Amino acid sequence: MRDEILTSAKRIVVKIGSSLVSSKDAGLRPDRIDRLADEISMLRTDGREVLLVSSGAIVSGIKKLGLKEYPKSLPVKQAAAAVGQSRLMWAYEKSFERLGVKVAQILLTHQDLADRRRFLNARHTLAALIGFGVVPVINENDTVAVDEIRVGDNDSLAADVAHLVDADLLVILSDIDGLFTQDPRKNPSATLIPLVSEITEEIEQRAGVSTTFEGTGGMATKVRAAKKVGEYGVATLILNGQQAGLLPTVLAGGDGGSLFLPKGRRMTSRKLWIAFTLRPQGQLLLDAGAVVALAERGKSLLASGIIDVKGTFEAGDPVSCLNQDGKEFAKGLVNFSSDVIARMKGLKTVDVQQRLGPQEYDEIIHRDNLVLL
Ligand SMILES: Nc1ncnc2c1ncn2[C@@H]1O[C@H](COP(=O)(O)OP(=O)(O)O)[C@@H](O)[C@H]1O
Ligand SMILES: N[C@@H](CCC(=O)OP(=O)(O)O)C(=O)O
């Protein structure tokens, strides 16, 4: 299974952590970028298509601006990212140029992925770049991204990109061998978990949030990214990018790293987008009958099954569907605003028409716009 996943993956998103390509004292580390470029070039020669999600802009900028500490204020972080991103990109440019490979810079925010038109546009651009044999180097557009529109960490961005380009495999390169039973920096007796067949709560708890000076999110965001792509049928490999030659060796079937097996089957792109890219704007609490209708019988959601509406949202927005334990089990795009649903909830379709007049839709969420989680 492991061999087949790793050796057969054609389109691969490789995420490169700040801790690999930058350090507090040295700033950007072009030596590391050169070595990684060599290895990625080997993968390409082997017939793989590689897209990079690279961190490192902020730490490079910190060094370039002569800052002593990791900035706490957003404008200073954004200034560091702006200064550091051009340095980071220049290093990739030079490095791949040695090998006759072209690169392209892509800077994204959550908004670019949450808007279907922009999402499709980014997808087409990336497809065109891949068609030209270019290696896209993607990062969050930190300079313009305030909290509401941020993805927040590049492990999550890499998961989103894997979906965007319909990748076969996500590889997360960090400064550590993979997922350990505990953070090995704090517990030297921790051992590596080479294969994760299911991301249980226990696995999530093992992944700590502690990071290096350079990193964001630690192992927790990596496991979350693996869970996200695993839900739609893509495996994740977490690997130590500090070890020269490990990436091509493992992708050729050698040992190393932690492999997270996929859970679900591959979903259609639109359903994936609803399930994993959109952030719910509100919640609908459903009765037991509606939960069965949606979860087991593939039905659309009607007003009669709604017990309560939480949050304020407009028609077309994504919302979570909760069962009676308050657990989110589905997500979908609503046909009505929260105000209108509040007036419709619990009513049969004929009663809705009597009280609110004829409506454009019978369903609150049509099954084509509904995804079970
Ligand atoms: N269970 C765990 N297994 C491995 N590493 C862990 C674990 N829990 C926390 N970590 C920490 O996560 C760090 C990697 O995350 P981070 O610093 O964000 O790197 P990157 O810059 O590559 O994203 C490791 O150096 C390690 O200290
Ligand atoms: N976009 C930021 C990186 C944010 C981030 O998630 O960092 P990391 O945990 O090192 O992948 C930058 O380029 O500095």
From TrEMBL:
<dbReference type="InterPro" id="IPR019797">
    <property type="entry name" value="Glutamate_5-kinase_CS"/>
</dbReference>
<feature type="binding site">
    <location>
        <position position="154"/>
    </location>
    <ligand>
        <name>substrate</name>
    </ligand>
</feature>
<keyword id="KW-0808">Transferase</keyword>
<dbReference type="InterPro" id="IPR011529">
    <property type="entry name" value="Glu_5kinase"/>
</dbReference>
<feature type="binding site">
    <location>
        <position position="15"/>
    </location>
    <ligand>
        <name>ATP</name>
    </ligand>
</feature>
<dbReference type="InterPro" id="IPR001048">
    <property type="entry name" value="Asp/Glu/Uridylate_kinase"/>
</dbReference>
<keyword id="KW-0641">Proline biosynthesis</keyword>
<feature type="domain" description="PUA">
    <location>
        <begin position="282"/>
        <end position="357"/>
    </location>
</feature>
<dbReference type="GO" id="GO:0005524">
    <property type="term" value="F:ATP binding"/>
</dbReference>
<dbReference type="GO" id="GO:0003723">
    <property type="term" value="F:RNA binding"/>
</dbReference>
<keyword id="KW-0963">Cytoplasm</keyword>
<dbReference type="InterPro" id="IPR041739">
    <property type="entry name" value="G5K_ProB"/>
</dbReference>
<dbReference type="InterPro" id="IPR001057">
    <property type="entry name" value="Glu/AcGlu_kinase"/>
</dbReference>
<keyword id="KW-0028">Amino-acid biosynthesis</keyword>
<dbReference type="InterPro" id="IPR015947">
    <property type="entry name" value="PUA-like_sf"/>
</dbReference>
<dbReference type="InterPro" id="IPR005715">
    <property type="entry name" value="Glu_5kinase/COase_Synthase"/>
</dbReference>
<protein>
    <recommendedName>
        <fullName>Glutamate 5-kinase</fullName>
        <ecNumber>2.7.2.11</ecNumber>
    </recommendedName>
</protein>
<dbReference type="GO" id="GO:0005829">
    <property type="term" value="C:cytosol"/>
</dbReference>
<comment type="similarity">
    <text>Belongs to the glutamate 5-kinase family.</text>
</comment>
<dbReference type="Pfam" id="PF01472">
    <property type="entry name" value="PUA"/>
</dbReference>
<keyword id="KW-0067">ATP-binding</keyword>
<keyword id="KW-0418">Kinase</keyword>
<feature type="binding site">
    <location>
        <position position="142"/>
    </location>
    <ligand>
        <name>substrate</name>
    </ligand>
</feature>
<comment type="function">
    <text>Catalyzes the transfer of a phosphate group to glutamate to form L-glutamate 5-phosphate.</text>
</comment>
<feature type="binding site">
    <location>
        <position position="55"/>
    </location>
    <ligand>
        <name>substrate</name>
    </ligand>
</feature>
<feature type="binding site">
    <location>
        <begin position="174"/>
        <end position="175"/>
    </location>
    <ligand>
        <name>ATP</name>
    </ligand>
</feature>
<dbReference type="GO" id="GO:0004349">
    <property type="term" value="F:glutamate 5-kinase activity"/>
</dbReference>
<dbReference type="GO" id="GO:0055129">
    <property type="term" value="P:L-proline biosynthetic process"/>
</dbReference>
<dbReference type="InterPro" id="IPR036393">
    <property type="entry name" value="AceGlu_kinase-like_sf"/>
</dbReference>
<dbReference type="InterPro" id="IPR036974">
    <property type="entry name" value="PUA_sf"/>
</dbReference>
<feature type="binding site">
    <location>
        <begin position="216"/>
        <end position="222"/>
    </location>
    <ligand>
        <name>ATP</name>
    </ligand>
</feature>
<keyword id="KW-0547">Nucleotide-binding</keyword>
<dbReference type="InterPro" id="IPR002478">
    <property type="entry name" value="PUA"/>
</dbReference>
<comment type="pathway">
    <text>Amino-acid biosynthesis; L-proline biosynthesis; L-glutamate 5-semialdehyde from L-glutamate: step 1/2.</text>
</comment>
<dbReference type="Pfam" id="PF00696">
    <property type="entry name" value="AA_kinase"/>
</dbReference>
